[in-house]
Amino acid sequence: MSHHQHVKYLLIGGGLTSSSAAHAIRSHDREGAIQLIGQEPTRPYHRAPLSRAFLRGSVSREKLFTDYVDWFRENRIDLHTGVRAVQLDARRKCVSLDNGDEISFEKLLIATGASPKHLSLPGSSLANVHYLRNLGDGDRLHHAIEQARKEGRPFQSSSGSIASRGAVTVIGGGLLGVELAATLTGLGLAVHLVVAGPYLWKKFAGESVGKFLTRYLEQHHIKVILNTEAKSLEGDGRVQRVVLSDGRIIPCDFVVAAIGVLPNKDLLRGTPISGERAILVDEHCRTSVPDIYAAGDCAAMFDRLSGKHRQLDQWDSAIATGTLAGHHMAGAKMIFKGISHFTSEVFDLRLSVWGEARHVDHHILRGLPTSETPDLIEFGVAADGRIAQVLALNHGTQDETLQELVRQRFNVIGNEDQLRDPQMKFDALLQSPPSGTPGGGD
Ligand SMILES: Cc1cc2nc3c(=O)[nH]c(=O)nc-3n(C[C@H](O)[C@H](O)[C@H](O)COP(=O)(O)OP(=O)(O)OC[C@H]3O[C@@H](n4cnc5c(N)ncnc54)[C@H](O)[C@@H]3O)c2cc1C
Prior knowledge:
With 442 residues, the protein is an alpha/beta fold. Helices cover 22% and strands 29% of the residues.
């Protein structure tokens, strides 16, 4: 029998964004009924460790959750997992679930996240073609790794002395593809990394960084194949070979594809809520329909600086925009000052990126990366001469200042040599605008 319920706050999506919103709402409103609906069987968790510590087996499932098990009950948040919201009636302010229930709301947050883009080529539905977005995917990948290590293709290990087993082809040279290639290598598998573009991390890094990373991965025995696409996957029921666009054939035990994500915006169907690739929201996470908010990976937020919407599909942004939406839903005011920021780990490399790659016109590089000292900073400069993005490898100590250079859209004109100089302290730059450019740091 289906039920109808009414709540003050309805949060759709069981991820980090919804859990951040729940915290923010409760910090203002101790009483209003909150219901959180998530289609996965578990309470919200952090996804970033899935491609690293979780796959390596060095972090337990329990450590991934955003909140301890009783937090939702203690804060009177009605958590429903394993249920999917299937329809939104924006006029009646009501959401239907796949179990037949209906929930009406005063304020709604859509925080449905994103889903991996799937390969669309012959053989892509064969068994053992994997994607990684959730714990279920992580468990299946674990199983594929174990199988390949036991029964997979034999190969000579890097030293040439030990015969190992298990070969994987990773498709995609972005953040996730590179992390997966490193983790799977660390687990003793032979890894091919197939990349459509001319260098790795092309979406957010310059050519020098991308090429350095290729050499770095190759030194760690990953076979990087650039400028090449997978044309088809072949095998007897399960994938056994990847056929490349240049005709090469790579034998493997399984494939992992990391070719990007698509925001989950199905709930917009039949509603007047504005959406393009993602759900469009203003600087307060409000959609075009009153009392309906969206945040996290499913949303694109209006950016006053560029006059455009920008997607904030990272861990930091899930917390920041979820919190922002929660504050506004509870009637509090909060200004979003965040800039895009993400991190990654690849063997011993620690990557941090602040800002927006899509505004970058050219790069200024500080430091010459080598495998022994892979420290560098790459400044992404916009056409107007101001810093749009900073990418840092192994530069943990100056994070605050690097972030400030992006936040202030620091004017590099006249400062190029100092930016290239590894001895130069950025604090000094921020304090002294170059002569002839008043307000160089504004
Ligand atoms: C393997 C991996 C590694 C990552 N590494 C990093 C990293 O190093 N750094 C970084 O900054 N970011 C990283 N990210 C990205 C980061 O995890 C996301 O930005 C963050 O999870 C977004 O949170 P979210 O709550 O908006 O969406 P999600 O985490 O996707 O959560 C949305 C939830 O809503 C559910 N849902 C969808 N539709 C419905 C519906 N109709 N009804 C009910 N539930 C629904 C989904 O199943 C999902 O559980 C990584 C992501 C992955 C997958």
